[in-house]
Amino acid sequence: MRQQCNLRRSAITYLGSCFVSIALLGPAALGQTCQGAADMEAASRTSIESASQRYADMAVRGDSTSLQQNAIPSVASNFAGIEAAIKENHANWAGAQPAQRPVWLLQAPGTEKIERAEFLCGVFGAHGQTANSAVFVIPNLPPGNYAVATFDVASGKNPQTLSFVLQQIGSDWKVGGFYAKPSQIASHDGNWFAERAREFKVKGHTRNAWLYFMQARDLLSPVPFMSTAVTDKLYDEMQTVQPSDLPVGGNTIDLAVGAKACKLTNTYPVALNDEINLVVKYQAGDVSNTAQTYQENIALIKAIVAKYPEFREAFAGIVARAVEPSGKDYGSLMAMKEIK
Question: Which domains does the chain show, CATH number per domain?
Fold first, then answer.
């Protein structure tokens, strides 16, 4: 089967004025504190839980207007991303009863933005995080009180997590960040991908193992600036199979496609038609001639499977995406069984 497609990563994330990234653990900044639900005063916990539950209910009902009215000013004035995410997920969320996970309270004192706010939450052991701990790392965070609340939304075909970053304004908790992302792809959760990754590692299929570990971490992290004992362990396991011949950490890799060298910029799994496919992005000068770009995509797909035959076992198909410097791209899918 060959077809044209327009795929993107399924996680939808938005956070007001703060750019969020995953970071490695380091010394905690002086004065930044974190409390889990069990450590909070009852009144604080109830206030956070009630506000976040109300906002989750608004989201699954598709009531983006009310959610915008309850957002901090910087988010309310730039709400298009959240509104689009709510519309995109409305059918899947219909009739859902969001189930709340334990909330977290993050307190960042001071008067200036914190270049790298790091919150170590819960009890840590001799080997790092424990089952009930978490780490949040947020760059350029204004001082204030924040809360992180995550919900499991299990209705519809695609289970998801819905997370909010709340900021305390006076006595109220307002929406400062919104994250909607799948907790499964192709009907498989993060634990399933982790187990398959370990099986690939035993076989020596290190590229498959790396990609499946990466997918496992993504599915098990409801927000991109949070790490847990589970995701830390997966990170450590990933390092043992990190490939030198796939694009990792922003680097590019040259792949010979006939007489031409293509620069690969990213590879990651994606679900399509309830199957696990591999997306391969590469640099292209111009994708306006779609017939020519299609042929180049197909040639690249065949070349990458010829070079990495282990992909046949891990993926149902390959999606090649030619990406212009402007960001405009053109993608083509080829089922693995059609790749000779």
Answer: 8-183 (no CATH), 189-239 (no CATH), 253-338 (3.40.1350)
